[in-house]
Amino acid sequence: WPGGASGPTVGIGIDLGNAGHDNIKRIFQGLVDRNVLAALLSASKTRGAASQRWILDHGDIELTDDVVDKAFRRMCWIYWNDAVSVYGNRLQTLDHTVKGVILSLIVHHGPHSSDLAFIRKYLDDHNAVAFATSIEAMEARTSRPTLAAAFKKRRRSESEVVMLAVSYRRNSHTEVYSD
User: Fold this and answer.
1) pLDDT tens sequence across 22-51
2) Which has the closest alpha carbon to 63: 121, 120, 12?
3) What share of the chain is helix, strand, coil (3-state, %, to 5)?
4) Residues pairing with 10 in the sheet
């Protein structure tokens, strides 16, 4: 549990408190036995200080490396498809590096987060500089000083990836976004 409004986090960044009951089931069903699945599902909507209690009560849950890998891949697939349902098929036409940045944002905020409304704006106006600036500005909304430095570094890296992709594509005489 990284703190704040996050829920218990398992595997590679799977925030059980924010993933939602249905997504937890979609991610882990068939990968873990029904008792572990029931325990993971019990964390749905568990956030903040309650996350610490959940972790103490369920500290005996162990996920193999194979389960962690498969669960992460499933989560990315589920969240990406949810994002496509929110933002439309235009996401599919983006450069793969920009898709990676968007997937990172979606994994950490959820595909339905109002914090990510600027993604739709980017899809509409193709302004990569404004998009990169919006990503970097996200870290300014982090109130916890211990997390702020890590988020700042992550968002700056994501912002730089977008700008590098745009720069590379422009120099290659192709567009990062195409209809």
Assistant:
1) 999 999 999 999 999 999 999 998 988 899
2) 12
3) 70, 5, 30
4) 14
